[in-house]
Design a protein that fits this description.
The protein is mainly β. It has a domain at about 10-25 and about 80-200: Beta Complex (Beta-clip-like), CATH 2.170.270. It is about 5% helix and about 20% strand. The strands form five sheets. The chain has a three-stranded antiparallel beta sheet, with no helix packed on it. The chain has a three-stranded antiparallel beta sheet with strand order 5-12-11, with no helix packed on it. Strands 6-8-7 form a three-stranded antiparallel beta sheet, covered by helices on one side. A hairpin with a 2-residue loop joins strand 11 and strand 12. Keywords: Chromosome, Methyltransferase, Nucleus, S-adenosyl-L-methionine, Transferase. Its main location: nucleus.
């Protein structure tokens, strides 16, 4: 059973990643990926659709360098072309995010935004959050040196709950030289359905957190390897100084 939220969660809502520990990267002109697409009025998909070289490599086109100009369809992160969603309070799993429109398989749902921090800072924060008794995981892997922390600042994507049989997945895209994380639909999602993705992490705290996703193949606890444990999961060791 779902109910409308009666009180706003305590966090700072942001629409783009917050770079507090370093400057935003400046894209060098020689590094800009330029596709070969040419817009054809009789074939709308020609404007940087599935056949676009950049799309095939999860790279968004750079405005001013794409021949399709304003018709380019490969700037979804830059234009915040999200699906409509709605925040709700769930019965047993805290806050959740529902589809507020019919979402098609492969559709870009929302960007996972937060504070871009170093691995060293992520390690420090994760320990602090654990000491504070926080069981929700809002720090996700971004690349070999950085993570995104949406605990204090984030987009609505932070409210998407875990499921061992999710209807969404995370994908990394390169946008204007920066790696960004988007939530994409794995299947058609009817309006009113709660969104979910597999967190793909291994619990490194003291007490394991019971999974309440309710999926038929639920592993029982967040972080159990029976479902979704991937090589992209990273655990910090005590001597890891990144």
């Amino acid at each position: 059973q779902e109910e409308e939220p009666t009180e706003a969660p305590l966090y700072i809502h942001i629409e783009t990643n917050d770079f507090s520990y370093r400057r935003h990267k400046r894209q060098k002109e020689e590094d800009i990926a330029v596709c070969e697409c040419q817009y054809d009025l009789m074939d709308p998909d020609s404007a940087c659709g599935e056949r676009c070289w950049n799309v095939s490599t999860n790279t968004e086109c750079t405005p001013g360098y794409c021949r399709c100009g304003v018709y380019c369809k490969n700037q979804r992160f830059q234009k915040s072309q999200y699906a409509r969603t709605r925040l709700v309070k769930t019965e047993r799993r805290g806050w959740g995010l529902l589809a507020d429109e019919n979402i098609t398989a492969g559709q870009f749902v929302i960007e996972y935004c937060g504070e871009v921090i170093s691995w060293k800072e992520a390690k420090r924060r994760s320990q602090t959050y654990e000491d504070q008794g926080l069981t929700e995981s809002y720090i996700i892997y971004l690349n070999a040196d950085e993570s995104i922390d949406a605990t204090k600042k984030g987009s609505l994507a932070r409210f998407i709950n875990h499921s061992c049989q999710p209807n969404c997945e995370t994908r990394k895209w390169t946008v204007l030289g920066e790696v960004r994380v988007g939530i994409f639909a794995k299947q058609d999602i009817p309006i009113g359905t709660e969104l979910s993705y597999d967190y793909n992490f291994e619990w490194f705290g003291g007490v394991m957190v019971r999974c309440l996703c309710g999926a038929t193949g639920c592993s029982g606890f967040l972080g159990a390897k029976s479902r979704g444990f991937q090589e992209a999961t990273y655990l910090w060791e005590d001597d890891d100084d990144r």
